[in-house]
Amino acid sequence: MHANRVHCVDEVQKTDEELMVTLRGGDREALAELVRRYQNDIFRFCLHYLRDFELARELAQETFVRVYVARQRFDETRKFRPWVLCIARNLSLNELKRKKSVHMESLEEYASAARDEDGGLHRSSDGIPDQELMEQERREALARLLDFLDAESREIVTLRFFQKMSARDIAEVVGSTEGAVRTRLHRILKSLREKSLMVKDHL
Fold first, then answer.
1. CATH number of 107-203
2. pLDDT (tens digit, 9 = 90+) per residue, 77-91?
3. CATH 1.10.10.10 region(s) of the chain?
C-alpha cells in the first residue's frame, strides 16, 4: 500500500509531458493522472460545442481513449494541453458534422454548464472553483459579446478567455498560426468595442 502511495505521488509531481512519456512506456497510472487533471476541462470544452451533457461526457471519455491510442505518436517537446484539446475539438466537430447541427452555446449556458446538479461549481484539480474568478458582471457582459460573434470567433474568444490559452496554443488547437490568432483576436475586440458594448477592462 505504501509503495502505491509513493507511486501516485511520483505521478502527480510529473509534468503532463513527462506523464505521456511514462504512459508510452506502459505505465497506465500516468493516464489515470492525466484524466484526473483534465477530465473536467475536457468535459466543459466538449460541452461548449455540443450543448449535450451526456454526449459531452462520452466524447470526453473518448478523448482519453484517443490519447492512449496515440501515446506513441506524442511529441514530448510540445505541450500536452493544446494537443489533447485539439483531439477533443476534432471529436466534437466530427460529431456536429454527423448530426448536421452546428450551434455554439451562449456564454450564459456555458457558465451554467459549469455547475453540478445541486448548483455547486465544478472544481478544478487544485480545489478552486473554475468560475470563481469570473464576477457576475463580467459573465453577463461577455455573454452579450458572444452573441455578436460568428462561430469561429466565439471559439477563439472562448479558448482565450475561458480556457486561458495563449495565442500560440490556440493556434495549435484550431490549426492556424500564432500571428493569425493574434490578428483575429485584435479584430474581434476592436469590432466589439466599435459596437459600443460594455467591454471595459475585462478583455
1. 1.10.10.10
2. 999 999 999 999 999
3. 107-203
> DSSP class of residue 121?
B
At 70-121, the pLDDT tens digits run 999 999 899 999 999 999 999 999 998 887 543 444 444 555 554 444 444 4
CATH 1.10.1740.10 residue spans of the chain: 1-103
Cβ atoms of 16 and 79 within 8 Å: the answer is yes
CATH number of 1-103: 1.10.1740.10
Sequence-distant (≥ 6) Cβ neighbours of residue 33 within 8 angstroms: 8, 11, 12, 14, 19
